[in-house]
Structure formats: structure tokens, C-alpha cells
TrEMBL record:
GO biological process: aldehyde metabolic process
Keyword tags: NAD, Oxidoreductase
Pfam families per UniProt: Aldedh
Catalytic residue list: 218, 252
Domain called Aldehyde dehydrogenase: residue spans: 12-434
Protein name: Aldehyde dehydrogenase
Length: 474
């Protein structure tokens, strides 16, 4: 395997890139729809022309199998649809107003926010880079991308290919680590979108606050799996194991722990074992299972396995400082090391609960995750989950699938972030809804009462609505 040496952007170059993008936005070049559409379609060409090179870079970075490259098709489709829907998204909106205001031509214009910063992670580098970039391009913004230094082959490929496909005066890549990210955050942006860990998100938020910069954070969290009594446990195990094994559990929407109803623990474990051997007949570590991205992440996960109070019933094999087999741990208490923070790895704790009421209480006591997964056939339980829990998404009877629906927003709430992207939601994130009114001079006779000195009859007229009868609520 060839190790790619990532070329960091010189610190003194970063402010020059920022200034170049800002001047481009101020010139108005990015505003015409034809320009935006051209750039959006270039994303599709980028993916189509370089598919194998992109796959090879991702495999080089952390060994993902080619079957786990679904994000590339997602990006391709998002770009095509954004180009097709751009005119509809960008149309001015005419709100319904009272008749006497209609002559003012009240309108809401979608206008670009300006020059934006997108800080993307290593684990789904193309979705988390291009999903917001599609929105920024569609909105008419200029954008700077800061990929993760933990995926050097992918980040270097982005830097090498960007100038070949996109307007370099409007869209650029800056590579680096802490020093380069710090320099970026010192600059003034018109919006920042960060995907990653809560610890770093607090640093980003503090930096954004200095310039009153609007911010979108996509963070993750401990995504629970709840299991009702009336479901097929065999199917639950199959779908949960699939969701957990995807890129070795290193996904922000990966199932983080399972709340198991009474009498189902051993049946669930048996089903996990069945599909474990089906997915990896020779064992996951012998079949190209994804690597843990960095030695310090591997050490963190290894420490969790060494100090858990639960019982490892499946997996647990560790290979060097790179890979850990998918691992199922039962009898995990709520105060266990596996429950302290988002696992972000191939370890799945099983927690025995007395019933759905206890399961719901556990979910509500922990921080709001990016997704809650519930296996049930009960419409009443679905309604309860909708009304009594908080999460970025709520997905029933499967894991991960909701993220593939282009028409749904992708984002969190509370500790799992705020704001969203994906499809039109990316466009909305980087768009300012600008109010417009044109008050005609001909209306001056009707506005005479507003000028001082204020007469009693004017006061009576202006306050008349407060004395009107308020309608009944039903």
C-alpha cells in the first residue's frame, strides 16, 4: 500500500485564498443561475471521471471495501438533481398578505450568504464535503473546503482535482491540521459548516461567535436501537449488524448501543452470530474489514474493550494498531465505559431493559443523538417516539437508510448539532431569505395618519385590533 504524503497549505497562503474567494463573490460572478448550474454539473463530472481514483484513495486511507462507496452515487445524484431544481429553488416567493399590503409587492428573495467555510471529516469525506458544497454552489456562494488530515490520500486528491473541475477563484481546498484550521477560523466567513466531534465543535463555535458568523454543526452522538416485543429478532440482528459494521462503526449515524427487551437477549445474540458468519465466512479480519482511521482512535477503542464490565460474546479480535473485529458485548451497565461517549467504532453494547418504558427513559436521559433506531410494528409506539424523544432523525425498522433519502434533512439537535444539509436543505443553509417591499408614493394619502402630531382618532384607529373579538381555539 502506497502511503500518500499530504501537502499542507502554507499558512500565509490561507488568507490569500480567502481574499480571492471573497473578491469573487463580491464581483457577482457566482450569482447567475447558468454559472451555478455549470459548477453543479462539474461535481457530477468530478465523480464520474474519477470514480476509481476516489475509491482507491478511500481504500488507501482506511481500507473501506468498494461496496461501501455508496456516498459517491449519493453525491452524483444530489449534484444532478440540484442542477435540475436550481431554478425552482431560486424563485422569489410571494407571501400571502392582507389586501391593503398587496400593492407593496412583498417578496422574499433567496440570496447567497457570501463566502463560506466547509470543514469535513474523514469518515464519509465525499458526502460531508459535497453535500454542503452543492448547497453553497446552488445558493451562489463561494466556498473553501477543509478536508481532514486523517485521510491524506482523499484530501490530497481533492486538492489536486478541484482546480481541474471548478472555478478556482470561487472554490478552493485548504489542507492541513490544527494550525491550518486555526488560521481558517481566525478569518471572517459568512457561514461555517462543521462536521465532526463535539469537542472540536465548541472550538469552531467559539471562533464563529467572534465574528457573529452563522454556523451549522453535524456531530453524531450515541444512536440507540430500541426493540419492541412484536418484531422479528432475526431481521433486527441482520439490519443492526449491517449498520454497525459499515466502515467499522466509524459513522456518525452508526448504531451505538442496543436496548434489549426481556427474554430476547440470547435470541438476539444467536441471530448476531448467524449473520456474523454469513457476512464474513472467513472472519472479518481476513476479508478486508475496514481499518480504524488512526492509531489513537484504535487505542481508545482497545481501552474500551479492556475496561468494559460487560461480557464479549462475539468478535473482540484486535489486529495491530489498525483493525478491530466487529464486537458484541452483553450485560453492559449504564455506567460502563462503553456508555460514556459515542463509541465510533465496531463495538456494540447490549443493555438489558425491563421493557419499553425503561428503554425510553434511558434514551431521554442521554444526550440527543443524530438518529434513533426503533424496531416495532406498533403505530402507538411510533407516535410515542415522535412526541417524547429528541434526535436528528427517527428511523423505524432499519439502520442508516434514512440518510439515503435526498428529500430529508441531514442534521442533529442539541448535542448532535444544529442546522442541516442534504438536497434543498443544503441550498437553504447557505441562502439568506431577504425581505423586499416597494411602498408606492401614490399611497401617501392613506399613510397621513402615521405622522405626528398624533390625534386621538388616529390612536383609536391604530389600536382598534386590540379591542376586536379573539376567535375561539376550536
Amino acid at each position: 500500500m502506497t502511503v500518500v504524503q499530504l501537502q499542507f497549505t502554507a499558512l500565509d497562503e490561507i488568507s490569500k485564498v480567502h481574499e480571492r474567494l471573497r473578491k469573487t463573490f463580491e464581483s457577482g460572478i457566482t450569482r447567475p443561475l447558468q454559472y451555478r448550474r455549470t459548477q453543479l454539473l462539474q461535481i457530477a463530472h468530478f465523480i464520474q471521471d474519477n470514480w476509481k481514483a476516489i475509491e482507491d484513495a478511500i481504500i488507501s486511507d482506511y481500507g473501506r471495501s468498494r461496496s461501501e462507496m455508496s456516498e459517491l452515487k449519493t453525491v452524483f445524484d444530489h449534484a444532478i438533481h440540484a442542477a435540475q431544481d436550481l431554478e425552482e429553488w431560486s424563485k422569489p416567493e410571494k407571501p400571502k398578505v392582507e389586501d391593503w399590503l398587496a400593492g407593496w409587492d412583498p417578496t422574499i428573495y433567496p440570496t447567497p450568504k457570501g463566502t463560506v467555510l466547509i470543514i469535513s471529516p474523514w469518515n464519509a469525506p465525499y458526502f460531508t464535503t459535497f453535500s454542503p458544497l452543492i448547497g453553497a454552489m446552488a445558493a451562489g456562494c463561494t466556498a473553501l473546503i477543509k478536508p481532514s488530515e486523517l485521510c491524506p490520500a482523499t484530501s490530497q486528491l481533492l486538492a489536486d482535482l478541484f482546480p481541474k473541475y471548478f472555478d478556482s477563484n470561487a472554490y478552493a481546498v485548504v489542507n492541513g491540521a490544527v494550525a491550518e484550521a486555526t488560521r481558517l477560523l481566525e478569518l471572517k466567513w459568512d457561514h461555517i459548516l462543521y462536521t465532526g466531534a463535539p469537542k472540536v465543535a465548541r472550538i469552531v463555535a467559539a471562533a464563529a461567535a467572534k465574528h457573529l458568523t452563522p454556523l451549522t454543526l453535524e456531530l453524531g452522538g450515541k444512536c440507540p436501537v430500541l426493540i419492541d416485543d412484536d418484531v422479528d429478532i432475526d431481521l433486527v440482528a441482520k439490519r443492526v449488524l449491517y449498520g454497525k459494521q459499515f466502515i467499522a462503526g466509524q459513522a456518525c449515524i452508526s448504531p451505538d448501543y442496543v436496548l434489549v427487551p426481556p427474554g430476547k437477549m440470547e435470541t438476539l445474540i444467536a441471530a448476531f452470530k448467524k449473520y456474523y458468519s454469513t457476512f464474513w465466512p472467513k472472519g472479518p479480519l481476513n476479508e478486508g474489514y475496514s481499518r480504524i482511521i488512526a492509531p489513537h482512535h484504535h487505542a481508545r477503542l482497545k481501552n474500551m474493550l479492556e475496561h468494559t464490565k460487560g461480557d464479549i460474546v462475539l468478535g473482540g479480535e484486535i489486529e495491530g494498531s489498525e483493525r478491530i473485529a466487529p464486537t458484541i458485548v452483553k450485560n453492559v451497565p449504564l455506567d460502563d465505559i462503553l456508555m460514556e461517549e459515542e463509541i465510533f467504532g465496531p463495538i456494540l453494547p447490549l443493555i438489558q431493559v425491563s421493557g419499553m418504558e425503561e428503554a425510553l427513559n434511558i434514551v431521554k436521559e442521554l444526550s440527543s443523538p443524530l438518529a434513533i433506531y426503533v424496531f416495532t410494528n406498533s403505530e402507538k409506539l411510533k407516535e410515542t417516539l415522535l412526541n417524547s424523544t429528541a434526535s436528528g432523525a427517527l428511523c423505524f425498522n432499519d439502520t442508516l437508510s434514512h440518510a439515503g433519502v435526498r428529500e430529508l434533512p441531514f442534521g442533529g439537535i442539541g448535542e448532535s448539532g444544529y442546522g442541516c444539509h442534504g438536497g434543498k436543505y443544503s441550498f437553504d443553509t447557505f441562502t439568506h431569505r431577504r425581505s423586499y417591499a416597494n411602498v408606492p408614493p401614490a399611497g401617501e394619502p392613506f399613510m397621513a395618519m402615521r405622522y405626528p402630531p398624533c390625534k386621538d382618532e388616529v390612536y383609536q384607529a391604530l389600536t382598534a385590533p386590540t379591542r376586536a373579538e379573539i376567535p375561539k381555539p376550536w
